[in-house]
Amino acid sequence: MWKRLRGRNEWKFFAVLPQADRRLAFVWWLALLLRGVLPAVFAVAMGMLVSSVQRGETLIGPLIFSGVVFVLLQVLAPLQTAVSQNLGDRTAAWLYDRLARACVRPPGMGHLEDPRLTGDLTVARDFDLGMTGPPLSYGLDFIAGSMVELVGGLAAAVVLFAYAWWAPIVLAGAWLATHWGWRYAAAHRGCSGCAVDEVDGRSSHAGKADEAFAGTAAAVDTGQFCGLHWNRSRALGHHRQELRRRTRITRSRQ
User: Fold this and answer.
1) In Å, how far are 80, 112, 124, 143, 199 from 191, measured between CA atoms?
2) Where are the domains of the chain?
3) Over the stretch 171-187, which tens digit does the pLDDT of each residue have?
4) Looking at the whole model, is its pTM more than 0.90?
């Protein structure tokens, strides 16, 4: 089970963050955990404040506690956005260094002709340019937002233990059932598969045919124009099909 967990892409991704920048990764995780736990702590603080008012006790301690938690809730979100952008840039640069070493370290040029390596390099370039998804400098903040919701749900379930033992079980069960029920409609599952590889292959094939046709002696004047137009129209058709497919997958999630 431990090997299976470490073999997951999520584990590999989060393991890369401290290798890119250990300090930024520590601050990123700390801000993430605090943002997830503080909403539940703020609810407890407000309960303490209301209880003190009802009992006629001093309000200095509950007010200070509630104010500190409230200020942290307002400050941590923009702080983590800035940290996510810096850490995303560092991680992208670190991954690019790994790709560069993988390309230049082996002797010879044979490994560069491997179509799998070429495809991986193309995917990495398109991803970093924001063509197939947000770059890490932006995407890491989205990941942090989802992780904050996860930690917040767990913290709320822990707080409910003080009221009823069955309440957190019902809350966590309903919450996890929602994720389990919609797992097949996730965009990352729908966009990763044979269909994407097929579209990328067709687009690459159209580009190669475009270059090959332009390099022949027969590709002159009108013939060259028609051939290039046909290849480009073919590639655009594949891209439109892929865009419509991804749009349907995204709508199915909503």
Assistant:
1) 28, 26, 15, 18, 11
2) 2-164, 182-254
3) 878 877 776 666 555 44
4) no
